[in-house]
Description:
Strand content: 5-15%
Structural class: alpha+beta
CATH class of the largest domain: Mainly Alpha
Order of helices and strands: HHHHEEHHHEEHHH
Strand order of the largest sheet: 1-2-3-4
Oligomer: single chain
Amino acid sequence: xxxxxxxxxxxxxxxxxxxxxxxxxxxxxxxxxxxxxxxxxxxxxxxxxxxxxxxxxxxxxxxxxxxxxxxxxxxxxxxxxxxxxxxxxxxxxxxxxxxxxxxxxxxxxxxxxxxxxxxxxxxxxxxxxxxxxxxxxxxxxxxxxxxxxxxxxxxxxxxxxxxxxxxxxxxxxxxxxxxxxxxxxxxxxxxxxxxxxxxxxxxxxxxxxxxxxxxxxxxxxxxxxxxxxxxxxxxxxxxxxxxxxxxxxxxxxxxxxxxxxxxxxxxxxxxxxxxxxxxxxxxxxxxxxxxxxxxxxxxxxxxxxxxxxxxxxxxxxxxxxxxxxxxxxxxxxxxxxxxxxxxxxxxxxxxxxxxxxxxxxxxxxxxxxxxxxxxxxxxxxxxxxxxxxxxxxxxxxxxxxxxxxxxxxxxxxxxxxxxxxxxxx
Length: 425
């Protein structure tokens, strides 16, 4: 369907930009290594929620030509069953035409109000789009963390195999009891079960991710090998006035102001222009001046808006709706500010935790190397070796969780600091 944008100049630019995103060609027939941006493009094109929001925006565009058009003219045709006799002949039929014109500026005010309301729908679409993108990024980070944790656990299974060989060797040389081998078996069984549970956890996450892309839930998802996050100092003390979820209320406020103006103009008279045409037949009279001449009479009509209650109520309604939009705008800014403060903390927390776990992993690896060497030489206990190895696994797992938390917080920052200019230019 071709959308007519002539009524909304600002929306034209924004919509063309969106269409480039929504309908850009994507080579997704062959499964390749795909970045998160590839999946975001798929969602922009295929997500039903986004398609619905964009259809609502396009539907709102159709309101402008409806409210800015003149009222339909009236045409009345009368045929007389019994002819009315006049001096110049019988009146056989009568045609009446009338076109009403609203007061000056009424249609323009209605058109502007409809355009502004459509723009608010456009920003609502952008906000929904950004929310979906954040959800996709969060799920992608969850899947990344799961993959890395599973890889870590599998690697630890191999390390435990080497510990088992060492324990068996120590037992054969009578330097350690057989119970050390049993402890390794117990630990490995626990780790294999954990791997199975993590693999099963991936399935609902994959299904949810694929549903956001509106594709089969069993479709494979390619996850990047490495993901990082960074703290952006430029985001501190940000301004949320340009956020799409705030901009939509600003446009609604402007729309309701125009509705007030149009409601006031609705209370002014409408003027109509038309004509009345009578068909006259000739009389059988010689030398009768004007014999059979049709009659045409110009007409002017004017409405009398004397019942003022409905007009006053319409103006008051638009005024109150405008106040509601202002309050909603302030409430949304406060909500975004609160989310920002929490997200900023989560981002800084993830960064500090990541640095901490890097230090702990480095120290644990050194300690583990010493303990293994000591156990080989019968200078340290096997329980100490296993405990330090478990501590190392915990630190590495927590590091993966810190990276995931940082990526999700960074994605939240991307949502919070999305601006309408990014789409309007």
